[in-house]
Amino acid sequence: MTDVGSDAALLAAVGAGDLDALRELYDRHAPWLSVRLARRCNDGEVVADALQDTFVAIWRKPAGFHGDGEVAAWIWGIAVRRLVSRLRSRRDVIVVPEPPEPGSVPAAEEQVLVAVEYGDVGQAMARLSPQMRAVIQAVVLDGLTAKEAARLLRVPESTVKTRLSRAKAQLRATLAEGVA
């Protein structure tokens, strides 16, 4: 049984074949991964499959983490790639979200995400370059640190900070002039 330690220590134990260490990593990271993946895909089956694929990939190749950055950001990168892979393989499937129950109030987070996706902010974000949009997604919407986002996006941390600053300025200007 692996002692509860840092993610890096658990990952090293996974590399030595310790299944308990993988279970501990799963217990630590699966809940937030599931929530973040569900923000990108409303098909629970696809999210569950991507989550499972993520931890299978970690089990098969824990040495993929090279020790630079946060283990959580590395796991998130795997999860996003697995989700995209699953979605590409199911392009012909259209998922229609279930309507909310009558009288229920959507969670505040859901209201914000809908406003970001479909409101003025969503239109303003659509005007950003893909690189700036990715940084906003990672740092603002997903709550990653600049260091984690840098690892995920495979750019220097200073680049993340610069793009974030420029993206926020561009969003402010676009929203101030009124999105057309």
Q: Roughly how many Å is the radius of gyration?
A: 18 Å
CATH architecture of the largest domain: Orthogonal Bundle
What is the CA-CA span between the terminal residues?
A: 59 Å
CATH superfamily of the largest domain: RNA polymerase sigma factor, region 2, helix turn helix motif
Note the main sheet. none
The total beta strand count reads 0
Question: What is the count of DSSP helices, taking H or I runs of 4+ residues?
Answer: 9
Oligomer class: single chain
* Number of structural domains: 2
Family: Belongs to the sigma-70 factor family. ECF subfamily.
InterPro entries: RNA_pol_sigma-70-like (IPR039425), RNA_pol_sigma-70_dom (IPR014284), RNA_pol_sigma70_r2 (IPR007627), RNA_pol_sigma70_r4_t2 (IPR013249), RNA_pol_sigma_r2 (IPR013325), RNA_pol_sigma_r3/r4-like (IPR013324), WH-like_DNA-bd_sf (IPR036388)
Keywords: Sigma factor, Transcription, Transcription regulation
Protein name: RNA polymerase, sigma-24 subunit, ECF subfamily
Overall description:
The chain is mostly helical and 180 residues long. The chain has two domains: 7-89, RNA polymerase sigma factor, region 2, helix turn helix motif (Rna Polymerase Sigma Factor, Chain: A, Orthogonal Bundle), CATH 1.10.1740.10; 108-177, Arc Repressor Mutant, subunit A, CATH 1.10.10.10. It has nine helices and no strands. It has helices spanning 7-15, 19-40, 44-60, 71-89, 108-118, 120-126, 130-141, 146-153, 157-177. Helix 4 crosses helix 8. The radius of gyration is 18 Å and the shape is globular. It starts with 6 loop residues before the first helix and ends with a helix. InterPro entries: RNA_pol_sigma-70-like, RNA_pol_sigma-70_dom, RNA_pol_sigma70_r2, RNA_pol_sigma70_r4_t2, RNA_pol_sigma_r2, RNA_pol_sigma_r3/r4-like, WH-like_DNA-bd_sf.
